[in-house]
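Pasting two entries for a bug report.
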Amino acid sequence: MFVVSKLFWMIFQPLAFAFLTMLAALVCLAFSWSAAAAVFAALAAITLGIACFTTAGAMLMAGLENRFPRPELEAPPALAIVLGGGISTGISARRGTYVFSSAGDRYIEALRLARLYPAMKILVTGGDNSLSGNIHGEAAPAARFFADHGIAAERLIYEPSARNTAENASLTAALLASQGLKDAGCIVITSAYHMPRSMALFGRQRMKVMPWPADYRTDGNIRFGFSFDKPMINAMMLSTALREWAGLLLLRRSASGP
């Protein structure tokens, strides 16, 4: 399932889809199928126009980010579960340091809470999510980051094998159960747009966790319109939002059964 989902998204993310439909249009032209070529070319143009020059991605992203606000903590959390994705693992491994990705706020927020609540432990879950299997996980660079910022090693727990969010939840649940911590007061730290799917998957593991979103990408109040000044950011936003919404739809469908 992991490989299928990776390959599916490599093909159907907006820019890749536009590229492939344009190739299909060229093939159709080569065989003089002008009507089919026009359909594929129009589909590519519409996809690129929506992805690059509208606020569709930001609007969909805001809908995800607004689902789970940060709760009021009645007591200090016993454990913060940090979902992988905040560190560029390949670069970090080759450079021997920690290099944050665009989701690096996950680690910054974990560090802030670790200093605020000195008894809180931190669990980092995330392994190699590449198809090649040649990229290291986040355990080593995360250890360097927390050590450099004064967090004692005994406060840290690592789950180094998860390749996606479903495995983040299942492997973390198994690890915490083995250590008698599954029912501890846990918060989940991940990007705000990623929180709805994360909470659904941790819920399937019968874990009672509180959402602690970080890494906001929007101000939460986006309307649909044109946006010509940042086409690549718009396209990236739409791609990320569509992936999350697709994941949520698949979860809902699997929960309802055949």
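Entry 2 (this is the one that rendered wrong in the viewer):
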Amino acid sequence: MTAAKEVAAELGTALRDFLGGYATPVVPVEDGERVWSRLCGELGLAGLLVPESRGGLGFGAAELVAVAAELGRAVVGGPFVPGAVAAATALSAVGTPRSDELLEGIAAGSPLPTLVHVPFASGRRVAASTAADGALTLTGTVGPVLAVPPPCPVLVPADVAGSPVLALVAPDAPGATLTPLPSLDLSRPAWRAGFHETPATVLADGVTAAEAIRRAEIATCIALGAECVGVAGHALELTVDHAKTRHQFGRPIGAFQALAHTLADLTVTVEVARSAAAYVTRCGGDERSTHTLAVKASEAAVTVTTEAIQLHGGIGFTWEYPAHVLLRRAHSAAVLAGTPDQHRRALFALVDER
């Protein structure tokens, strides 16, 4: 086992042990922010991808996959994906004194900046304009913004005369609004960000901005894909345990051939998703392996959690049981990561380039 795999395994075990202290297999929604604060303080997860030179842990794809899978398994809320993953990755690619200052703040435990999530391959960016003195202002709406109070700095992919810009908006900037959006996943609140001639600071432009946004998009897809792997695995565990303990006609329901075959198929589905996650870690998180993970993991999570609800019967729909919570996280993460068809097309395009 390589050093990176050993560290990733240790991180996953530490997270599993920490989160295993809850009475239910998932973290209650109301405890999500408190749990995230503890994870940052005790395990330093906010600085997971922040370079060591800026006070962070300096980890890569293997550790990201291990951590995200455990957070997905327990459906932990908090700003991990938009802040510790997307924003930290984008800032690391910028390499300016201001971006370095923000990275050092992330590692030190300051409120996480959050990157406005742009749906995969959409190319959506907020319109921006520059005044004669070079000042930048933003006008438009974009979302969802996956963050939680208190307000934090927002990184916005913007467009100035057809050229990409990565802009930083202060939490109290005039003309900036955050409108709550309905969210299927109650542990992950979402807002729509609106801007009207809102002053912003240019962190990067041109090729640098495009590369920072691209890297953040890849890291976000890896994190959400790994979450889906954790969700699918947990849903399968719950379903197998239920099939062993729930009796009908004097036998465990898992002994009936139809259910046994279904569980076998779900096991294969989960193992394929786990293999895709291992492929990402082996490749260091390149685009090809990321698209593969996004396809296999999102499909696995949706398929397994849907079947889990059905195989649990009525109890699967109750608030007291975590099956429906896992279902919500699966559908939410699958949408945010981009649809499987989008990632297939991107993967085919990469193959054609060869």
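Dev reply: Rendering is fixed now. As a check, the viewer should reflect this: The radius of gyration is 21 Å.
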